[in-house]
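Reopening: Acyltransferase family protein still failing for me.
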Amino acid sequence: MTDSPRPNGNRRTPLPPASPPGTATSRTDTPRTDTPRSGASSSKKRRDAFFDNAKYLAIVLVAVGHFWEPIKGDSRFMEAAYTVVYAFHMPAFIIISGFFSRSFDMRPDRLRRLITGVAVPYIIFETAYPLFKRVVDSDPGQEISLLDPWYLTWFLCALFVWRLTTPIWKAVRHPLPLALGLAMLASVSPQIGDDLDLQRVLQFLPYFVLGLCMRPEHFHLVRRRSVRILSVPVFASALALAWWAEPRMTTGWLYHRDSAQELGAPWWAGPVMMLVLFGCSLLLTACFFAWVPGRHMWFTALGAGTLYGYLLHGFVAKAGEYRGWFEPSVLHEPVGAVAVTVFAAVLVTFLCSLPVQRVFRFALEPRMEWAFRRDAAEPAREREQREKRAKQEAGETRESREAQEQVSA
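Support: Ran it again with your exact input. Result attached.
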């Protein structure tokens, strides 16, 4: 794929293989693509714009959904829009996370990145959110528990478990049916409890495993112009269906955090709803990917900071809930809903920006070299990478010189 796709949506250059995964949104999570230099045949590695764009747009929808929740009230249209957004925004994000976890193994350097990029942020924010509630909401009884993910931290807990089990999913013959089976069993198992939010870990697991099974060409299938055109009536139909279902179905099914019995439904409804929602989510996710631009946009660079936007916007959303910022009636009217939507999008965009990343990197991407033993094979890998870069630079210099000689001739 190039930075600017062809107008007809066909004949794109295949995506390159994914690079080794880092954190959920770290700079190593996005594969790089070769972009030709002007006046030379050599190329330099750049991040693939499509995945950064997809991550940024997905995290904007996550923030918008959280800010819609306290203002949707009795508005049937707002509830329908909220349902549609919640049906695919986290599945899309989780599929991308799975796609970039394909090369994860138990190599020491990758385990270190998993700890520093997922486990450590989980501990920090799982502590910070309850402390924030104690101060802002004047709730001294709010407990800190690393076993009970609070608000947004469930995703870090789930990602840690999913990545650790990646070698298993790569080893079994039919990983996706197995993951779906586990998710269906979880939907009828209220005894699982809330520890580590295992209901969400298991019920969202199929999306992560699907990402592991996907190849670059699968993303091309949904990014054709025909799919982009068909996605318009699909989204319109989904909105109409959500409007019809609003008084007939609880949105609790979309959160995947409770069993069927806990939602007041018969046990057999759990597996059925799991399969129905999985199919609907995949359809809407495909439509979402169809509209994600593949070229470099003004927000592409923000895709590297989506974990920052995800975890930090929660403090603002919760502060509004604690302080009653969403109570004015004007916010529950169409004009107010639009204003809240714009505010949420601007807020998460700012929180994904480079200055914010620099300030909070100590919490979300700490290096922590002092905490780990040096891998004996790491110097050899670093030396190999240096030699590879030196050969590449030498080749680029030679090709550039030859090109200049041909121009001079």
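The chain has one domain: 46-368. If you still see a failure, please send the error message rather than a screenshot.
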